[in-house]
Amino acid sequence: MKKPSFLPVLIGTGFGSGFSPFAPGTAGALLAALIWFGLSFIVSEICLIWLTVVLVLVFTVMGIWATNRLEPCWGEDPSRVVVDEMVGVWIALLAAPSGNVWYALGAFALFRLFDIFKPLGIRRMESFPGGFGVMMDDILAGIYSFVVLIGVRWLIG
User: Where are the transmembrane segments (predicted)?
Assistant: First the structure.
């Protein structure tokens, strides 16, 4: 097995959070949620939305690239690759009001539930080849979480 290069490892493992010995996917999603929550206190709400969209887009492209380089070394859909969880939770957090810890926790929990149980076609996304398939199931889990959280916000008013 060949050794992967530094940049794909850094990106793919979510800045190393994927090396967590316990629940690496949760560790990656938690790091992403903490990054978002920290940003929510230093930028305006509209800026946070745009920054989150940029994070989703950039890390989706970089995640596909990194995963395609890591799979030959680590095998198909390696558990250490958590950039997909980061992207998924950022999508869910697009529905959370800036700085609101309860909605942020809700987005995190919803995303992890959809990601773990993979209902409503999420599991089928894994059949896409390479890094695209690795990213797509978490993107769809993030979209479902976003929709549920928007619905909750609408119901609460």
Answer: 20-39, 46-67, 87-111, 132-156
